[in-house]
Amino acid sequence: MNTITTRISNFSLLAAAALLLATGSGLAWAEDLKLSGAQEVPPVTTSAGGTGSITIAADGAVSGSVTTTGVAGTMAHIHVAAMGKNGPVIIPLTKTGDGVWSVPPGAKLNPEQMKSYQAGELYVNVHSDAHKGGEVRAQLKP
């Protein structure tokens, strides 16, 4: 390799490293979700459903929202538990529109919760008066 090519390659590596440092870790996981009653524990027979996107950054910062149809949601949360199990709330979602539930600004997973997320052990669900334990659910997968 000649000197000019070596300098260009070194410059490219330095530029890429600087970009990663300038944007934090540069890593985030975005999850497109499809919420359904079939994913609840126990499963719920409902015509309700939902879609959304939750993003979890490498530092644990969480953002995103879910939108439901066919359900008068009373509350929504991100919980910690494996698929097929129920678990405690770790992030309450805020109602920001008709059928829209958003992650509040500044929400962040702690290191233990981040490990749970990486193991596929977080889920989001929306509760209703008819199904107080949750009417629609989607598991978050890294």
Structure description:
The structure is a single chain. This protein has a single domain, classed as Immunoglobulin-like. The chain is 20% helix and 40% strand. It contains two helices and nine strands; from the N terminus they run αβββββββαββ. It has helices at residues 3-22, 111-118, and strands at residues 28-36, 49-57, 62-69, 73-80, 89-92, 94-97, 100-102, 122-128, 136-140. Strands 1-2-3-7-6 form a five-stranded antiparallel sheet, with no helix packed on it. Strands 5-4-8-9 form a four-stranded antiparallel sheet. A hairpin with an 8-residue loop joins strand 4 and strand 5. Mean pLDDT is 86; it is low at 2-25.
Structural class: alpha+beta
Helix content: 10-25%
The number of domains: 1
CATH architecture classification: Sandwich
Short description:
Helices cover 20% and strands 40% of the residues. The protein has helices spanning 3-22, 111-118, and strands at residues 28-36, 49-57, 62-69, 73-80, 89-92, 94-97, 100-102, 122-128, 136-140.
Any chance you could write out the topology, listing elements then pairs?
Blueprint: H1 3-22, E1 28-36, E2 49-57, E3 62-69, E4 73-80, E5 89-92, E6 94-97, E7 100-102, H2 111-118, E8 122-128, E9 136-140
Antiparallel strand pairs: 1-2, 2-3, 3-7, 4-5, 4-8, 6-7, 8-9
